[in-house]
What we know:
The structure holds two protein chains of two kinds. Chain A is an alpha+beta fold. Chain A has helices at residues 56-81, 103-106, 108-112, 147-159; strands at 2-8, 12-18, 24-30, 35-40, 48-54, 86-91, 115-121, 124-127, 140-145. Chain A folds into two domains: 2-81; 86-159, Alpha-Beta Plaits (2-Layer Sandwich). Chain A is elongated, with a radius of gyration of 25 Å. The chains are: A alpha+beta, B mainly alpha. Chain A: One of its GO terms (molecular function) is monoatomic cation transmembrane transporter activity.
Amino acid sequence: xxxxxxxxxxxxxxxxxxxxxxxxxxxxxxxxxxxxxxxxxxxxxxxxxxxxxxxxxxxxxxxxxxxxxxxxxxxxxxxxxxxxxxxxxxxxxxxxxxxxxxxxxxxxxxxxxxxxxxxxxxxxxxxxxxxxxxxxxxxxxxxxxxxxxxxxxxxxxxxx
Amino acid sequence: xxxxxxxxxxxxxxxxxxxxxxxxxxxxxxxxxxxxxxxxxxxxxxxxxxxxxxxxxxxxxxxxxxxxxxxxxxxxxxxxxxxxxxxxxxxxxxxxxxxxxxxxxxxxxxxxxxxxxxxxxxxxxxxxxxxxxxxxxxxxxxxxxxxxxxxxxxxxxxxxxxxxxxxxxxxxxxxxxxxxxxxxxxxxxxxxxxxxxxxxxxxxxxxxxxxxxxxxxxxxxxxxxxxxxxxxxxxxxxxxxxxxxxxxxxxxxxxxxxxxxxxxxxxxxxxxxxxxxxxxxxxxxxxxxxxxxxxxxxxxxxxxxxxxxxxxxxxxxxxxxxxxxxxxxxxxxxxxxxxxxxxxxxxxxxxxxxxxxxxxxxxxxxxxxxxxxxxxxxxxxxxxxxxxxxx
Lengths: 160, 391
């Protein structure tokens, strides 16, 4: 990726990024803290077609959104790199032998090697649930482990 | 009785300037030509001549020039200036030669003598960095590739002013060749001394001025600036240059705070300065010089367009950008009037003041308008030209 830095005497600096597809995006950093987000013309790389002025606060927000998206991608990438590890989401169906029993009763880790890392219920996430956590029909369970391990948990939850 | 009228006059003048400023915002043009017109109206031979407040306005005008140059100096840091001088000297010299030439030629053709020629060269040369910076911001041109070229030309011009103003002051003082050389040496020594202090010991100056209290900071900065300006004037260096150099010496967060504190003061006194220049100009003297002013303005447009074209081409910018660079450089404003003010105060040719006023009036208004129209016109031309080739 190519980033061009230019001084703008009396105003600040400008950074221009040329993307892989050949589009140019610039950021003019004013000394006052103001930032201009600049998009260049497709045909004429000298000319900016849009220039949006952002306050210090607004530019932080934009940077954060661009940045967080990158972090999520980064995590997904990492996960893909750890071969053999799978994340599965399983539902406790009504009539499951564990509906109304605790997490500890499943003994999932001892029996399958996979871990239950979170339970989603009614829109809230219960991360790292303890063994005395009560399970109910409709709970969404996040399991991490080998493919065989997570499959084992699935069978365990339906058949006991 | 006397004091009653002074307050009424001052209040009326400042209020009128405020209304004109609002008008300029409405039509997004520079307020400078309007302030000049107000000065013309308030001066001798105008529609509403002032009687009692001229003395105050003349002192205010001097402070206005000092603050204009001080805040300009604040915009730059010393390393930035030295860096620009190195990188943009060729383009800067083209700018200087092309744009000073029409003024010098006009003064010589009109038979005003060599000193007036030096002053006229300065008047046609300098672009208004204030108006141009505003045009660049308003039109969203700050990200364009030619913009660094335009900005470094402005820096170069401002640096040239630091050398030019003392020379002009010395020449206007009517010193002979030998005396002139001595004054120039003193001026050069003073500028080098202040620049050295700014480059090497800027921190010490900053520590001396720094204060947590805005009030203390304002008083210290203003006091230091006016004092250095006064000393510089005593040494024939021109007060404006002294103030410019103090501005350069301050940098970083301190410069930022100082700029915020002094900008309202600068706006007030700079407006007073433009009015004062208008005051000194008799509106009846304008019509006779209007023709020359229009010719000079045309020459000024052509020479700045050529400068922008050449400078942008050196930086590898395409046709549209080259035209934009030239158009951005068109506006003339504060410094042209500062130079003319010095020349008028020293009593050069009586027509120089009105000519400079008319010249700045034309270009301060036409410049930003031309900048707005330049890009669409070039695109239209390029499309017309490319059509037969593609079909």
